[in-house]
Amino acid sequence: MTRAHDGWTLVEVLIVVIVLGVLAAIVVPQFTAASTDAKLSALKTNLDTIRGQLELYKAQHNGTYPTSIETFVDQMTKASEPGGWTAEVGTPGFDLGPYLQSIPNNPYTGSNTISSSPPGESAWYYEPGTGHFRANHRPDYVDY
Q1: DSSP characters over 83-139
Q2: Residue 80's beta-bridge partner residues?
Q3: CATH number at residue 123
Q4: 75-117 pLDDT, tens per residue?
Q5: Is 140 a domain residue?
Q6: Beta partners for 96?
Q7: Which of 121, 123, 122 is nearest to 106 (CA)?
Q8: What is the radius of gyration, based on Cα positions, of the chain?
Q9: Measured distance CA(98)–CA(80) in Å, rounded
């Protein structure tokens, strides 16, 4: 006479838990590495986009980059004229730009603030005289 299986034994449960623990120990680091790689890829993409648009701005504005930290966002996200003055898109005489829809977030900080003093409290660093633009606050800071 056979008896129906009423449930799991303690040994069976322990074996399943151990197997799941081993699998988790193998898989979780892979996801962590993928997350780090994704942040770095997003950072490099954002920097390439911004730097390319800064060069376009310079070409269309008589060889000058956006003039200061205070005006950077307006000069990159609004319409402008060759002298660097900005206005809302569609304003007559302001036929250049916008160069960016918005300043992208730094994937390491989650913000899009800009300063001229690295490493600062901002997400991005911009040097108006040279057009040098880079990320602040990378855990293993490298100048990308």
Answers
A1: TS-EE-TT-TT--B----SSPPPPTTTS---EESSSS-SSSEEEETTTTEEEE---T
A2: 86, 96
A3: 3.30.700
A4: 999 999 999 999 999 999 999 999 999 999 999 889 999 988 7
A5: no
A6: 80
A7: 123
A8: 26
A9: 7
Write down the pTM of the prediction.
0.75
Backbone φ, ψ for residue 135 (5° rounding): -90, 145
Q: Is residue 54 part of a domain?
A: yes
pLDDT digits (tens, 9 = 90+) for 19-44: 999 988 888 777 766 777 888 899 99
Question: Cα–Cα distance between 43 and 47 in angstroms, integer?
Answer: 6
- Helix, strand or coil for residue 14? helix
Q: Verify cis geometry, omega within 30 degrees of 0, for the bond prior to 98.
A: yes
Give the dihedral sign, CA 59/42/106/126.
negative
| Per-residue tokens: 26 | 């193998």
Other residues' Cβ atoms within 10 Å of the Cβ of residue 17: 10
Residue 143, in any domain of the structure: no
Place of tokens 């730097």: 51
Q: Which of 131, 129, 113 is nearest to 121 (CA)?
A: 113
